[in-house]
Specification:
The protein is an alpha+beta fold and 193 residues long. The chain is 54% helix and 8% strand. Helix 1 runs parallel beside helix 4 and helix 6 runs parallel beside helix 8.
Amino acid sequence: MSNAKLAADRIREEVLILDVLVAYGYAVHPSGGDREQQFSCDLHGDGNDTKPSARVYPDSASFYCFACGRTRDAITLVREKEGLDFWPAVRALEQRYGLKPLKWVQEKKTTQEEVGAALQVKVPVSTVFQRTERFLLSMCREKSAERWQLAALWEAHDQIATAHYREGVGDAEAKALSLRVLDKAKTILGVVS
């Protein structure tokens, strides 16, 4: 099971959706228990919902807005209300509701194996470096891994890039991209706590 799924499942189990809705000012009764309640949703249109278009389902720790046509849970709500990515939203909920962060569980593949597998795709080298850059930079920004894991990812990227250029099959654009990635990595990894 992935780290993201473990974190999301725990929040659904331990954080009451009614408490999160109340914290954001939605008109639901926190003592409503397992009772479904209707409320106005400000996440669609101009944010001014004159008729209660959303319904909370405490048993599934979610709510559905009929106007938006979307189901949301606590993490999704925090992401949309505060403009956060997944991991910062998880950490915000953990902090607000007194949950200790979960320990990172190593997946079956090592990070170097995952990066290596991603680079086996038959696409131009410059595309691979762009994908890798986006992936690694988002992990660094979100601090979704331990510092040593992030460093291992960047090292894997560097080793692959070095091997690629040593064989003389790289193009100038890919080389420029990889150098930019490595410069950003040094800056970001210096900030990651």
